[in-house]
Fold this sequence. Notes:
Elements: E1 17-18, E2 21-22, E3 24-28, E4 34-38, E5 44-45, E6 47-55, H1 57-70, E7 76-78, E8 87-97, E9 102-110
Antiparallel strand pairs: 1-6, 2-5, 3-4, 6-9, 7-8, 8-9
Amino acid sequence: MPLQTFTPSIAPSPGTQSKPKIALYKAEFGDGYTQLSPKGLNHIKQALILRWDGLTELQMFELKSFFESHGGYRPFYYEPRGYPGLLKFTCADWSIVDRTPWSFEAKLEQSFTTEV
């Protein structure tokens, strides 16, 4: 089954946070010298925090349903603003603030699976 593309009916609120996770090997030597090298080919993973403010209950359920249907482990495509095309992500962490209007936050982590 082909991967879904995450295209919410409402764009995330301004202020998307992008914080890449970088995986490195680090060798420290006795004289204070340190040598770093990447852990694998994809050692830089994009991590995004998307936030939606001012949602209706229906919009909140749309977002919640999408992420629940992927179970935190199934990847999906998403094109973050400022990036040149679709990237593959998973989302295992989201939160909802129960107020009127609703608020929703999702933490996406880039995925390098072979699924397409």
